[in-house]
Structures are given as C-alpha cells and as structure tokens.
Amino acid sequence: MHNIAVIPGDGIGREVMEEALCLLEEICKTNSLLTIEWEIFSWSSEYYLQHGEMMPKNGLDTLKKYDAILFGAIGDPRVADEVSIWDLIMPIRKGFEQYINFRPIKQLAGINAPLQIDKDIDFVIIRENAEGEYSNMGGNLYQGTSQEMAVQNTVMTREGVKKASAFAFKYARSKNYKKVTSATKSNAILHTMKLWDREVASVSSNYEDIHFESVYIDALTAYFVQRPEEFGVVLASNLFGDILSDLGSSIVGGLGVSPSANINPEGNYPSMFEPVHGSAPDIAGQGIANPIAQVWSLALLLEHLGYEQPADAILQSIQHVIQEGIVTPDLGGTCTTKQVGKAIRDQVKSN
Ligand code: NAI
Ligand code: MG
C-alpha cells in the first residue's frame, strides 16, 4: 500500500494533472497488485493569493508522511516567480534531500524532433541537485558604482559528489546502461571540477563492467546534438546538468514530453516527480497542453515505488498514441489535452 501526495499547482499543471490522475485511477481499477491512494493538495499561486503563503507552515511535515509526491507545475503572472518557486518547490527539494535530478532522454517514434535522427536515442541525465554552482554563497561589492564586483561561489563536497556518482553508476548497472559520461570543465575550473573528476573516477573504479568517460561540457553539448544515440547515463553538476537537461529534452521533442524526478536516494524522505515544463500561462485554460510529460512523470513515480509493469504499460501507451498521431498542437497535432489523456488511458486498458 502506497500513499501519494498530489500537488497540481497552477495553469496547465492542473490540466495535465487531471489526465495523470484519471490514468492512475484506471490503472488501480484494473490492476489488483497496485494499491495506491492519493491526496490532492491545493498549494499553488491561487492558494498564496488567499493565504499569503504557498503552503502551510507545516507543509513539509504533512508531505513527509507520503511515499512520493506527484507535482504539476507552478507559476502565475500575479505572483512573483521567486515566491512561487522558492516557497514551494525549493523547500520540498531541499527539505527532502532530493539531491538527484533525474531526466530520461528518450526519442519516441513519431515525434518530429528537430534532429530527425533515425537512431535510437535512449539515455538519462543525472544531475547533482543540492550543491555545486547553485549555492547562495557570494556577494556583491560596491553595488551601483563603476567598481561593482560580484562573486558567486561554487560549493562541491566530496560527500556530495560521491553520493551523486554512486547513484549514477548504480542506476547504470541496474538498467543495463553500458556507459557513464561525466560532464566536466576541470581544464578551466581548477578547484571544484578537479574534486568532481577525482570523486567520480574513484566511484567508477568500483564498476568495471561500465565504461566510464569524462568529457568537457562544451564538447559534450556538441556531442548531444551530433551523436546522442551514444550516451547511456550522463552525470553532471547542478549547472551543467540543468543546461544539458534542457538541451536533451529539446533534441527528443521538447517540454511537452519531458518528465523528471527529484530523488532522495536514501528513501528517508519522499521523492518528487514532475514534468519539466512550467505552468505555461500562454496556453493555460485552452485545454491544449500536452499531458504526456505529466503522465510520463507518473510512470517514473510508479517505477520508483516498484510498480515496473504499469510504468512500462504507460510508456508503451504514450508511444502508441504518438504513433497514431493523437497529439496536441505542440507536437503538430490538433488534439486536446483530454483527447490525448483519454487515448493513453484507452490504450493502457486494452493492453
Ligand atoms: P513553461 O514551461 O511554462 O512554458 C514554455 C513554453 O512551452 C510556452 O510556450 C508553453 O506554452 C510551452 N509548453 C510548456 N509546457 C507545455 C505542454 N505541456 N504542452 C504544450 N506546450 C507547453 O515556461 P515559462 O513560460 O518560462 O514559465 C511559465 C511559468 O512557469 C513561470 O511562472 C515559471 O516560473 C514557471 N515554471 C515552473 C516550473 C515548475 O513548476 N517546476 C518550471 C518552469 C517554469
Ligand atoms: Mg531548467
């Protein structure tokens, strides 16, 4: 028996979440091995406008009791992005030590991706999600004067890099990926990136069955475009991983089909699963958002909880629906969010 906390959020987050939940309901109905219950939390920008906070003060204590979190998207033109992101998503990621950000980069047949590569693109990006370049250490001197100078520190700890590397190699082995590629820049960033290189290499020595390579980030971005089919697991620091993730999702079809997971590998807190995209105010309310990224995020959640079979069934159904051309405008189609959601459900049912 598993309990999931569901936070639809704002804008299209709510629209695509509806499809994910209908699908979950369907799967639970037809699969007696799946015992999942969920509770929906209305924490969002709307909630903020009413209560002056994105979630209640004891929000994390409430979420802590769940086995996983399914998140939609947050963001509303009436509330500063700084508030919506930093007062809801960030406390969850940080408070629950979700130090791995995980993104599958998989080319689904039938998607008109920009590269048009007729090869099997199927790799994952594992991004260190808690330290690195996104620290708030630093400062700004002489602000507003001609001598103004800003310093932003990167913080890398041996322990942090080691844990992220261990996750990457373990994952590669468990899923039969033959290669781990580490993104580095130790030719120019001499302190932190050398520590990164050393720790990753040290962890790699425990995995002789997996080929390990370390590639400079600038060259790596080019290889992503030139030969994406060669990657297995790509391990990167916070900033490099952020950039590679968006590049990766754009080569296989864009935001509407890009799921992600924020993982707490120790399992002492819940992990969170969410589409990469935001609340898309430009199309919110029109019923044309692509629900695939959200539905795929649900599949990642189910897989994380050990329900591999329904997770596979969802992915196969997504694949089928795309090949049938049942897609939203972002993928060149004319279908609505609900039509795509229903088609995926029908396909899961018929399998
Ligand atoms: P966005 O991801 O919401 O939208 C970017 C573009 O992609 C838009 O043109 C949108 O229509 C399109 N798009 C996104 N998801 C789509 C889908 N499922 N189907 C079809 N088209 C889709 O990013 P943007 O515009 O930069 O940010 C909008 C709001 O979302 C902001 O408030 C931002 O802070 C927030 N945001 C929240 C995130 C989260 O909740 N994790 C992540 C990124 C942004
Ligand atoms: Mg990003």
Number of DSSP strands? Answer: 12
Rg, please? 20 Å
Order of helices and strands: EHEHHEHEEEEHEHEHEHEEHHH
Number of helices: 11
Beta-strand content estimate: 15-25%
Shape: globular
What's the name of the CATH homologous superfamily of the largest domain?
A: Isopropylmalate Dehydrogenase
* CATH architectural grouping of the largest domain: 3-Layer(aba) Sandwich
CATH topology of the largest domain: Isopropylmalate Dehydrogenase
Helical/strand content category: alpha/beta
Unreliable spans: none
What is the overall pLDDT average?
Answer: 95
- Please give the domain count: 2
Largest sheet: 10 strands, mixed
The distinct ligands, each listed once, are: 1,4-dihydronicotinamide adenine dinucleotide, magnesium ion
- Helix fraction by DSSP (H/I, runs of at least 4): 40-55%
CATH class of the largest domain: Alpha Beta
- For the termini, the CA-CA separation is 24 Å
Q: Give the strand order of the largest sheet, numbering strands 1, 2, ... along the chain.
A: 2-1-3-12-11-4-5-10-8-9
